Amino acid sequence: MKWLKKIQYNSxxxxxxxxxxxxxxxxxxxxxxxxxxxFFCVYRSSLLHPLTYVRLFGHILGHANLEHFTxxxxxxxxxxxxxxxxYGSKILLIMISLTAFLTGVLHCxxxxxxxxxxxxxxxxxxxxxxxxxxxxxxxxxxxILAVAIYLGQEVTGLVQKDNISQMTHxxxxxxxxxxxxxxxxxxx
Length: 188
What we know:
- By secondary structure, the chain is mainly alpha-helical.
- It contains nine helices and no strands.
- It has helices at 2-6, 12-30, 34-39, 50-58, 66-87, 89-110, 119-129, 141-157, 166-187.
- The radius of gyration is 17 Å and the shape is globular.
- The relative contact order is 0.13.
C-alpha cells in the first residue's frame, strides 16, 4: 500500500471537475435522468426559477452517457493539469465558470433544446493550451493549426442535424482564445 502514498491530487480543479461530473452521470443513471434534466442540463426556463441559475453552470457537469463523459474527460484530464499548473487553480476555475455561464446563456437565448456536457470547456482548453507560449512574442504554429482544424470542423458541422452543439464548441474556443491573449499580455 506504499504506492498509494505516492499518488498526488496534482490538479485539484481538473480532478474535482472530473469526479463531480462522474457523480452527476451516476446520479443521472440512478434517477433515470431526472437529476440530469433538472440540475445538469441548461434550457430555457423562467428567470424566477432558482434552478435556472444552477443549470447555467451545472450543464457542463452533465453528460448523456458514459461515452459522452469519457470523450470529454479524456481531453480535460490531458489538457487541464498543464493549464492549471501554468495559470493556477483559481484562474482555471474562473475560466471554466465563465465559459460555462456564457455558453449556457447563449444557448438559452438562441436554442430551445437542452444542452449538457463539457465540450465547450474542452474546446476552451484546446485553444488555450495551444497559446501557452504566446507570451514569448511568437505565434505558435500549433495555435494556427489547432484553430484552422477546429474551426473547419465546427463550421462544416453547423449544417448537420445532430445532437452536437457546434455553437458551444465555437464559443468555448473563442473563450480560450480570449483568455490566452489576456493572460499572455499579463505575463509580459
